[in-house]
Amino acid sequence: MKTLDLRRDLVPVSEFRSNAAAFLKRLQEGDRLILTQNGKAAGVLMGVGEYQEMEIRVKELQSAVNSLIEARKGLLMDKDEAMQLIDREVERAHQNSSGR
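RESULT FIELD:
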């Protein structure tokens, strides 16, 4: 993820409208833009790929935080317990799919 350059990446909405194709190309190359309206930050634009990567990172961080919370509460299970649980779930799914 590129670092924002406030001299280059602050873009008035009117300028964005006038040069949308060029700005969209920058977004596709990994830049992010801060759109301004009346001199104040109004929104942030980023490319689709970067947005998807950000969503993945956020989900991974949420999962890590949840794991830490569970660990502090003593809710974690050891490897053997986890494998037994997985085996039971696989067996249950197999039984349900075979119509038993």
